[in-house]
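User: Sequence in, structure out. Go.
Assistant: Echoing your sequence, followed by the structure tokens.
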Amino acid sequence: MRIFLVRHGDAVPEEDAGSDRDRWLSPRGREAARVLARLLRSVPVEVDAIICSPLPRAVQTAELLAQGLDYLRDIRSLRCLEPSAHPRVAGDAVLGAGDSVIVVGHAPSIISLGAHLLGRPTFPTFHTAQCYAIEDGRPTFTARADLDQVQPYFVE
């Protein structure tokens, strides 16, 4: 199984959106999601499912990743991927989504999900528009839009 955990791109401030739940991607966040899609395409990453939190910034990030990866299937939004989600519930949803899955979520829940999937007490912090790949139960690489690069993941 291949799981690509992604933190959404940069979003507009809460005061612009009216609430944290309603925040959408900023222009910088939209561009970063496009850069991340290009990086993942270069690996290459092919997926049979994309799932995301239902919050606008996660949905928009998922849509931009899908577009950049020529993913033509439906994107499913799941409440168990919201910022306060429990990692066990989210983990069950991810493991049942397909053999190769992009998961777009939020900090801190995406960090907790990564730790849960690897059976570790902690997981590295995510930057916005960053992906950590977990393949066959081990982390393999990270891609960061802000650095415009893919790097092997080194276990501490």
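User: And one key feature?
Assistant: The mean pLDDT is 96.
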